[in-house]
Structure formats: C-alpha cells, structure tokens
Amino acid sequence: MYSRNYYGSFYPITSKIHKLNPIVKLINFIIMILLIILTNDKEIHLYLSMFVMIMILLSYVPIKYYFNTFYSLRYIYLLLAFICAYFGLGFSDYLVYVSKIIIFILYLNVIVFTTSPSETIYSIEKFLNLFNFLNLKAVKIASSINGLLRYHPLYMMVKNDVMLASSVRGINIGLFSVKTKIRLNKKIRELTRIRSKEMNECAELRLYDINKHRTNFRTNKVGFYDILFLIFHIVLLYMYATLEGLL
Fold it and tell me: Domain ranges in the chain?
C-alpha cells in the first residue's frame, strides 16, 4: 500500500531506530521542534544535525530517500534566500534558517520512515490521552494526523501511476501547457482522495474503528536507546535554557 520510495512512507526493515518506542520518538520530536523554533544558536544546531545524521545511519534506510526529500525542497531554499534579502538579513542568518528547515525535514523523515502507520496512531493517541480532561476523541484525531502525514506519499504514488500510464501511451506530460498541467494536478489530487477513501474502507473491513479504543499487539518497551536518545534531547533543551538564562 505504501511505497518505500516516497517521503512519508514506512520503510519496513529492522533497525535500532525502528525498534525505538513510538511514544518516546514523539516526545523527542516535540523537544526537537521546540529547540528549532526557540533557538538560533549554531552550536545547538550543529549537535542536532550530527544527531540526526547518526539516526539516519542507524535507521538503515537508503540515504537516497533522505536526499530525494532534501532535493525536492530546493525551491523553498531559493524562496527563503529572497525573503532574507528582502528583510536585509545576512548570509549567516540565511544559513541558520536553512539549517532549521533541513533538520526538521530530515528528523521528520526518520520518524515516518521508521514508524509504521499503526504505531504512529498509537503514539499520538497515547500523547493526546494526557489531555483527556478536554474530552478529546484521541483515536480519531490521531488517525487524522496520521492521514495527513501519509497523504504526500500516496499522492506521489498516484502521480507516478498517471505518468507511467501516459508514457506507455506515448504521451509526454512534460510538453503539456501550464494550464493543462494544473488541470492534470487537480485530477491527480481527486484520484488521491479516492485512493485514500478506499484505504479507509479496507481498514473498516478489517474491523478497524477509529471511534473506539485501539489495541496495539506489539509490546512497545522502553529500551536503552530510548533512554539514551531522550537524555540527549533533554541535555540540548537544558543547554538552550542555560544559554537563555532561564536556569
């Protein structure tokens, strides 16, 4: 169902990162987001970059999949350069903002490549249960968030199918006018929504109900690497608080 060739697709192999507790992964990811948003310190960004690279290597997911995502954001880097120039920001400021984007995207890639859709829903659901006093429908919200995370790879799969079918018929989509490409893209989004609906119906046939409490058949134990990675994130958060004089 999910292609391992696209951003947002679960890559089903065995690795240290795949075995990490999904709830601890989510907590680490939240800490990382806070650090990226709050600090511009180059030293902390360097530590985060090194740590993300270590996680990428330990995930055993081919580097080319991470690079494909990095390369697909090239226009965002260019747009960011124009924005920084417009507001009179220097090259060092531009590098800081670029590093924020790259760290975030690569870290998010690590999460989605090494966490199955089931475990993603499980971790988000458990996290939202902390706010049960708000009477949230944790399972339904978790399922919706997971759907958003998996939308892009599904879109890419549908787009690839359309392009493949067109090339077989001798049609070169690259020669289409901009107006035709826009209409084609709209059609691909419609097909993606249909494919997503079909997947949800398949889940219902397997007796999966997002309105009821879920069970998880995998024992998600907190291991050595979970504690080690969590300590590293907490140390970086402590470094930020110390640099800002909050402690």
Answer: 22-243
